Amino acid sequence: MEYLDFELPIKELEEQLTKCVIIGEESDVDVTQTCKKIEKKLLETRKEIYKNLTSWQRVQLSRHPNRPYTLDYINALCGDTFLELHGDRNVADDKAMIGGLGKINDQSFMFIGQQKGYNTKTRQYRNFGMANPEGYRKALRLMKSAEKFNVPVVCFIDTPGAYAGIEAEERGQGEAIARNILEMTRLKVPIIVVIIGEGASGGALGIGVGDSVLMLENTWYSVISPESCSSILWRSWEFKEQAADALKLTAPDMKKMKIVDEIVKEPIGGAHSDRENTFEAVKSKIFEHFQELEKLSPKDLVNKRMDKYANMGVFNG
Amino acid sequence: MTAWFKRTEKGIQTSTEEKKDTPKGLWYKSPTGKIVESDELAKNFYVSPEDDYHVRIGSKEYFEILFDENKFEELDAKLTSKDPLKFEDTKKYSDRLKDAQKKTGLKDAVRTAVGLSSGKKLVICCMDFGFIGGSMGSVVGEKIARGIDYSIKNKIPFLMISKSGGARMMEAALSLMQLAKTSAKLAQLAEAGIPYISLCTDPTTGGTTASYAMLGDINISEPGALIGFAGPRIVKDFTGKDLPEGFQTSEFLLEHGFLDFISHRRDLKKNINLYIDLIQNNKVRLN
């Protein structure tokens, strides 16, 4: 397990606890009481830290190296019913964008999402979760296939942004994202979007238009990352914490602005500290929203979605 | 006594006919030199167990692998080719057809059948490379079209197993038009909302890739299959360039975005039926 700077008190207590248990096993000293005390303190410290997270700390948590990624969710949700599908039928199979069919409670879903790696090698293989145009086109192909067979779509968002490369521009990164956004507004099947990590800008929205947009508690969603925002507006990378606050990019902020529909609570200590319960929470929320959306006719579904996005924006007059 | 090993007769030459040979078909040697007994090969889905080489097989074997207990009803089994152009190359087309029929015991390069696969009906159209290189002429086009019609009428998923060198030159433009004919039929199948799975097997080239082989709701393949429009020799001659390693293999196509997945032959039945259950929102069959 890796620890973020503000998680260090937790690390210290966990180490103390491990030592205490070892002493208890290796000697005759009764350490039950001491262990219990440390456990109690650990729980309190965790609660204390996680109750008062700053925006920047949530950004850090959204990038925690032990945080579950898209395929972790899909495998946990679908078990062995997941069938991964590849390719955009044009240029490539983008490893940063994955997709495929799977079941939750006997209902088929088309799952799509950005995928990050869990070590240096796989991070490179997944291009750090930054999709190329072919990734967005693969996503659209799968969504269209889902629409054809009346299968609802679930998108998992976890990206530091769409890939900013020369070839990506040559193949039309902007066009690919734009096409996805347009087609997603009028797709005739329910779309449920879950932000499970980083939700950076157009790269996120390219698979992020949905009837229900859910956001895990310790994630962020905005038009730019706090670091880039700091470097552009403050002309220095040093102001990322202020930028994180200013951008109002946390789940509660986004809920307040009605850009997301619901916040999915994470276990105390974050998604990475208790993956099983995180998966369970996400699974039941997805299914709950699906059962509501299923009641709507395709026409009502699309109209409602169109209205929702048409009403976004704040202005005078 | 000292010369017991000496040849008394001079110049022994056994003629080819008299040479004792192992009967053909008892053993199979894969391209990497691994040898396997034919029975064992059949039991292993015609995949060489040591190097996983997927041996080229025909409709008989695919039906056996995919239909439950090898039970199926063949559709349009009697359709045969005409020779509308009175085509002749080194051989008359009509003779070529007769020879191919005699050699393979098949009527043409595709067979269509319907049967249960993991307990549910499936229409399979499977090409035979042994029949004039699995070339696509009027009969192939018509049988595929009728297979699709059967799928639409009975609402049964459609599986196309391609294995072809391309369009049949001996039927010239008529065979070219089979690309359009089969594609039109697939558009109707899509309109009817019936799943279409395209399985591209070794080799799937020429006109087949420019029509039904690439038009599946999912396109899938087996490991190491050759798939491409212009074959590797043509591309090499035409461009004068050396081809990249693994060019036009199924792995190459997966990497370039044209296949949904590659399946080991042993898992084909499971994966195809899993896809059908998922896309049709049915309960997943477990076998």
Describe, in plain words, how this protein is organized in 3D.
The complex is a heterodimer of chains A (317) and B (287). Chain A starts with 7 loop residues before the first helix and ends in a 7-residue tail after the last helix. Chain A has 14 helices and 8 strands. By secondary structure, chain A is an alpha/beta fold. In chain A, strand 5, helix 9 and strand 6 form a beta-alpha-beta unit. Chain A folds into 2 domains: 5-52; 58-310, Alpha-Beta Complex (2-enoyl-CoA Hydratase, Chain A, domain 1), CATH 3.90.226. Chain B folds into 2 domains: 23-55, no CATH class; 56-280, 2-enoyl-CoA Hydratase, Chain A, domain 1, CATH 3.90.226.10. Chain B has helices spanning 38-43, 59-66, 93-104, 138-154, 172-191, 232-239, 250-255, 268-279, and strands at residues 27-29, 35-37, 73-75, 110-117, 120-127, 158-164, 196-205, 218-221, 227-228, 261-262. In chain B, strands 3, 4, 5, 6, 7, 8, 9 and 10 form an 8-stranded mixed sheet that branches. The longest helix of chain B is centred in the middle third of the chain and has 20 residues, at 172-191. At the A-B interface, strand 1, strand 2 and helix 6 of A face helix 8 of B.
CATH topology grouping of the largest domain in chain B? 2-enoyl-CoA Hydratase, Chain A, domain 1
Task: Quickly give the CATH architecture of the largest domain in chain B.
Answer: Alpha-Beta Complex
Largest sheet of chain A, if any?
A: 8 strands, mixed
Model regions low in confidence, pLDDT < 50 over at least 5 residues of chain B: none
Largest interface by Cβ-Cβ < 8 Å: A-B, 25 and 24 residues
